[in-house]
Amino acid sequence: MKNKDFKAFSTLVGGVSRRDFLKYCTIMASSMGLPLGAGAQMAEAVVNPKRPPVIWLSAQECTGCTESLLRATHPTLEHLILDLISLDYHETLSTPSGKQAEEARAASIKENKGKFILVVDGAIPVKDNGIYCMIAGKTVLDILKETAKDALAVIAIGSCSSWGGVPSADPNPTGATPVHKVLADAGIKTPVVNIPGCPPNPYNFLSTVLYFVTFKKLPELDDKARPVFAYGRLIHENCERRPHFDAGRFATEFGDDNHRKGYCLYKLGCKGPETFNNCPALLFGDTGAGTWPVGCGHPCFGCSEQEVGFHKPLFSKASLHLVTPPDTYPHTAEAQGKGATITGVAVAAAAAGAAFAAVNKIAGKLGDDDKKK
Amino acid sequence: MSEESKPLGGEILTKPFLFFAGLFGFSLLLILYRYIAGIGAVSNLSDGYPWGLWIAYDVVAGTAIACGGYAMALLVYVMNKGQYHALVRPALLASMFGYTLAGASIMVDIGRYWNAPNLFTPWYANPNSIMFEVAFCVSTYIFILWIEFAPAFLEGISKYKEHLPSFVRNWNVEGLRKTLNKWLFVFIAIGVLLPTMHQSSLGTLMVIAGWKLTPLWQTPFLPLLFLISAITMGYAIVIFESIYASTGFKRPLETPLLSNLSGIMPWLIGLYLVLRVLDVFLRGVIGAAFKFNLYSLMFWIENGLYVTAIVFLLPRESRSSSRKLFLGAFFMLLAGTVYRFDAFMISFNPGDNWSYFPSFAETVITLGMISFELMAYLYIVKKFPVLPAAEHA
Asked: Residues B393, B35: contact at Cβ < 8 Å?
């Protein structure tokens, strides 16, 4: 990206240097495992004046996803991302409120029909025609249906909109339902991407958005519509405490010796072995090593996994896909070395004997010489 | 220097040479097997005992025995005792091969030997690591030793020009030698500094082993004890080698020069023993010396050997006997070597159920390294001006 291109754009973001901006785009690209150069492509896409508009709907949610997005990112980058995607409606972040806000949403939908990205956080209550969550006199169920059908793609951020999350926990009094199910039931074909987590790692969301903006298509998704780059592997596979699991070293109580030593939390109910996420690799909040639940000594509770987080008891043991470590892992019980063998002792003794014999021979010879004097 | 030293001449392929060549050849096969099948296939090393014979003998004891060059440089160039100059070259020769083969052993001993060149890339260096200090310092000193010894090679080449292939004859060997002689003092200075650093750091290597080293040996004074004993072993090897060479090659003995040189040794050993004993007392671990287990036995054997060396070397009259001089030097070398074996292997205990004794192949590889050193020594003293010219002795 040339400097003059950035200059035109820099007034929008304010206070961000071109270098920081390119760095940010490169980090985004690399966290998705994209090839070198994708960062530059992303930067080009972001400065494009025709940024895709985004409408952010909130249903039965706690605003944790928005908080996560705001806090975990460097402030200037947070501004950048909000400017980048031209956020036309967001109940927490919008400047207008009430009637004006609703008008802005209606205007954006009309103007950008079929071109905007719809982000949804929170589960959709469907019981009793969805009367348990209403905005501006309308049920969120109806708002979602009318907005989603005109959207280019729907991103369900957080476990609530992906699977149902907390509101769907038994006995699910409001009939909380994930977004993709609501849309499927209503026959709306707009593609849905799930970014589960409670809250999800903001970079998993931002990377998906930037990928979409840059390449005009969704990243590779798995069978549960999650981006593979983020949810391709079990937490257990990348966990920093995995060697303790393989070696059979477990914390059995909070605060016991083994817990203090940083042993595996499996017996405390860690759901790492059945939860797909990149937490051990990406960590949280940009605050350095060990900053994620297991790193802090708390078992993973499977927040981002369907039917695990908010459904399985916190301290019940996770089901294991593989009990034994793969062959490529180091052994857990090392051979403790070999003691003396007959050949080993024999050759050492022979060498020592030869050395002493040589010294003895020379000393004997020297003794004769000394006497001659 | 050229009038001081001259090549011995004589046949190269003698019986001892062929014996050493056979042993070296066998060890080469085992080394090859190590590179194909891995360290575990040839050695008894384990996670508990990652350092075995190759480190304890080839590197730690081997470089201390190879301290002759360092000890002589201290004496001749730092203390300005020019009368010992004739002993410098043979000492340097032994040092050069001792250190070079320590480096070669490391390449057999380390698991990821392909990472070894990273030692010289500053961006991979961790200057706070004692391992880095030792590795970098020792490998640099190997280069320095070859430069320090280069004048002998260059003299040899310029003297026998007519026997050499034509492309060598065209080199300006004499010019190179003169330039090198002009700048040699720089390398000598570095060559005194570096062993002072790494011979003490070899002791520090075991300080960081902490509780794994039994209390009779584990002390913050390890670096100082290692340094003093290394210098003493340096003088001992010069005496030992000189007498051995004189007897072996049927040359006149250099006893007066050597007995003067050996005068310093009892004092160094005495200083060492005072420090060693005071340290054991002041740390309150003297009780461990009377437990009558392996450790206390080794403690007495080791220090008994030092005392034996003093007994041989302290009386002035016994220093003029070449036999007592020879045995004194031998006991000093043995004492220093046993001390190093104790500190690195015997008194090292990584915990329950671990055990280590060098395997057949490990010992043969070490013997092969020593054989190569001896072969190289025999060849070079016969072909190049190293040993003092006979009339000087």
From this structure: no
Lowest-pLDDT range, A44-48, A224-228, A278-282?
Answer: A44-48
Q: Can you say whether the dihedral through the CA atoms of B258, B263, B268, B270 is positive or negative?
A: positive
Question: Residue B41 contacts by C-beta under 8 Å, 6 or more apart in sequence?
Answer: B33, B34
Count of domains for chain B: 1
Asked whether B357 and B264 are in contact (CB, 8 A), the reply is no
- Enumerate the β-bridge partners of residue A56: A90, A119
The verdict on a CB contact (< 8 Å) between A337 and B360 is: no
pLDDT the model gives residue B100 = 94
* C-alpha–C-alpha distance, residues A364 and A360, integer Å: 6
Q: Checking DSSP bridges between strand A124-125 and strand A134-135, what pairing results, if any?
A: unpaired
Identify whether B1 is part of a domain. Answer: no
Q: What's residue A11's pLDDT? A: 61
Cβ contact B45–A341 (<8 Å): no
Å between A332 CA and nearest CA of chain B: 12
> Letter for the amino acid at A43?
A
Q: Residue B20 contacts by C-beta under 8 Å, 6 or more apart in sequence?
A: B371, B372, B374, B375, B378
Please give the structure tokens belonging to residue B198. 């790494």
Tell me the pairing of strands A153-157 and A192-195: parallel
Nearest C-alpha neighbor of B73 from the set B169, B188, B217, B203: B188
Backbone angles phi, psi at B284, to 5 degrees: 70, 30
First to last CA, chain B: 15
- Is the model's pTM score more than 0.90? no
CATH of domain A3-230: 3.40.50.700
In the predicted model, is pLDDT for residue B268 greater than 80? Answer: yes
Contacts of A366 in chain B (CB under 8 A): 243, 247, 321-323, 326
On whether residue B189 sits in a domain, the answer given is: yes
Strand partners for A154? A118, A192
Residue B300 in tokens: 């007495």
Examine residue B357 and state whether it is found in any structural domain, yes or no: yes
CATH number at residue B121: 1.20.1630.10
Closest residue to B46, CB basis, from A337, A346, A351: A337
Residue A322 pLDDT:
67
- The residue written with tokens 């009094």 in the block is A173
Beta carbons within 8 Å of B111's beta carbon, 6+ residues apart: B39
Question: Does residue B233 or residue A16 have the better pLDDT?
Answer: B233
Query: Would you state the pLDDT for residue A46?
Result: 63
Reported confidence tier of residue A7, pLDDT bands at 50, 70, 90: low
In terms of average pLDDT, the best of A37-51, A74-88, A222-236 is A222-236
CA of residue A3 relative to chain centroid, distance: 33
Nearest-angstrom CA–CA distance, B257 and B238: 11
> Does A363 sit within 8 Å of B44, measured CB to CB?
no
- Domain residues for the domain of B169 are 15-392
**What is the architecture, at CATH level 2, of domain A233-333?**
Irregular (4.10)
- Contacts for A325 with CB less than 8 Å, ≥ 6 apart: A242, A245, A246, A332
Assembly ipTM: 0.81
pLDDT at A373: 58
Distance CA B359, CA B38 (A): 14
> Which residue type, as a one-letter code, is found at position A337?
G
Cα B66 from Cα B61, distance rounded (Å): 8
Helix (H) or strand (E) holding A133: none
**What does the pLDDT average to over A54-80?**
73
Q: Is residue B7 part of a domain?
A: no
Asked whether the beta carbons of residue B358 and residue A362 sit closer than 8 angstroms, the reply is no
Please name the residue ranges forming H helices in chain B: 15-37, 39-42, 53, 62-65, 68-73, 88-109, 130-159, 166-169, 173-207, 222-248, 255-262, 265-282, 294-313, 316-319, 322-341, 360-383
What is the share, in percent, of chain B residues with pLDDT greater than 90?
61
User: Would you call A363 and B253 a contact, using CB atoms and an 8 Å cutoff?
Assistant: no
